[in-house]
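quick one before i forget lol
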Amino acid sequence: MSTWYTAQALAGLVGMPAYPDGVRKKAEREEWQSRKREKGKGAEYHTGSLPIETRRYLAEQAVAAQGHAVTDHAAGGKAMAKLLAREVPVKPEAGRKLLTLGEGARQKVDARLLILQAADIFLAPYHACQQGEVGRRAFIEAYRARTLALPVSVYERQKPFSLITLRRWQSALADEGPAALAGNYQRERPSTVEQSPDLAQFLTALVTTKPHLANKWGALHELASQYSDMNQLGWQIPSQSSLRRWMVKWLAENKVAFTYTTNPDAYNNKYRSAIEEMYPWMAQPNDVWEFDSTPVDAMLVDGRHSIIAVIDVYTRRVRLLVAKSSSSEGICLLLRKTLLAWGTLNDNGVMRTDNGSDYVSQRVMSICTLLGMNVSRSNAYSGWEKPHIERFFRTLSHGLIELLPSYIGHCVADRQVIEARKSFAQRLEEKRKPDAQKEIYELAMTAAELQTLLDNWLDARYHNRKHSALGVSPNEKYQLARYQRRAIPDEAALDLLLNHIGEATVSKGFIKAGGLKYSAPELLEHNWKSQRVSVFLDPSDVGRAILYRTGDWNERIEAINIDLLGNGISPDAFRAAKKADAKALASFRREMRNLAKTFGIDQLHQDVVRHFVDQGKGIEAFSSRDLTLDNPALAALTGVSTPAEPARFNAAELAAIEARREAKAQRAQVTAGQESRALKTEYEQAIYLAERELDTPLTEREKEWLTRYLYSHKLMAKRINRHLDEVRATRRTQAKG
């Protein structure tokens, strides 16, 4: 630290005038010790002549300048090396003792070495004017106020100390070396638990299986004692305090592994590595896009919404969309917004998404396929596989969402803190109000207002702020890349592509898509029937669809909704196409018939059989001896003689048979007529009762019969209902007249 300062350097410091002339006048008035500058004109003033507050400020600044690059153990090593470089008589055993110190003692030594190093720098101007004690007190006050630029870990490991303690440290360092700063420290002896490996394993298995017992020392002590007694293990169970010390130490040493075993979600949020080099091949913008969705932790006028976002990993640029929910429609709208602003992905680019139903939907996948975008899906519940978009959501939440007046909290704990601002009576009264009158809805924004706010925050703040991982802002990263995007040449074509709703099959001259039927004159041609086509709906006209034969982009057809035919759209072209297709099919049929005659297709089966018969004429069948079948039934029937000719009836017998047949037919006709008359009678009775019920109520028996009839005769019930509607309409017309 320098002990001589110019008037320009002192101007404006604590306890000094604001301008150099004022410093010179103050120096002359108070007769400061001065000398001529070694270089340049003017004089320099010794720190011993400066006011106490100025000297203290300069000392703190010197400590701050020394401590900017200082961190934890590295700082301790630097301080130790600097102090050991001095010609301090240190005994050889002091160095060996330093090497044998435990982790806790070594951290204590590192912290105190940093404090002593800062003290040397701080006290330099005070020693120059023989005011060392004043400087020490000032140093102790500065440490207590935490105004010294020391690492936070130093303040955590070493509480404020007294003047006597500071002197003792300085003497111990000078006489015995750095190891003496640890105090009367001895190596820890193994605890009772450490001396019993089985007991230690039992306790670790117990707390990892039942983590709620990890801080219940009494329960652990009791369970260990009971287990030892039940199994006659003879464990030496330590006291509860000893057990507590061992368990606290074990939990501190195994914090990450314990969290991984007992709380996987907490492990993922706090400890799982977020590898920045997840895409080592990434070399330019639009190489990797990460997509994800998250609910907005703020209430909007029409309820909670979601944010669908995409981040360009190379530059950390972001585009987002506020939607009622994360759906394929919202993802397609965000894709449109992104493609128009950034261009398309590079040839080997990757679109990284999760495996939610909205991202794996047929519409999103088909659009990505049409655009030639490679899609890579992360595993379920694996946010660390999309670390960049997850980090952006955290930045967005802390940087903006939490400031919204209708913020409802990210978790239950946040919500409780927000609700704690109101008394119990206020919260109870708020619950009784309708949603529209609740305070949170009165302060809420609309979805469009939130979208505008988020877009402005992205463009004005996030894209221009230095990113910790990049070292520059996202906009600067993009400019430094000198990247030429592949822009979308036709916005209307993109709109059509994003409205791709899948494929359909041409059937009977039309297709079904989105619950509607579409047709075109070309689809009536036989060469289009039963063909698979890709369907794109016109975003500006729901009655219009663009069709391409699957896998063929050379021929396009504009189809219209069939319901519009005759309503503003002339069907003449469809009629003409239908007639032309009928003529083409008739011509095709005539041609095929002529070909069939030419090749004799109708006689082909006979020709084939005749051919094989001719081939088999010269082949003699293999003769073999038959066995006699011994069957009693066949043997019994063998003697029955077959009449030479069938039995004949005379004229009288034939007339009797015919009379019986006619009588049977007559009886069937009479029965059918009776059934018809009975059914007709029941139908007339049902109509009579239904008409009478319009004016006067029926008896229970009549109502039961009518209900049973209507239930068992569905077709008649429909006729009766139509008849009653006509009767009611007639009565209303007569009443108006």
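fyi Residues 11 and 22 are 8 Å apart (CA to CA).
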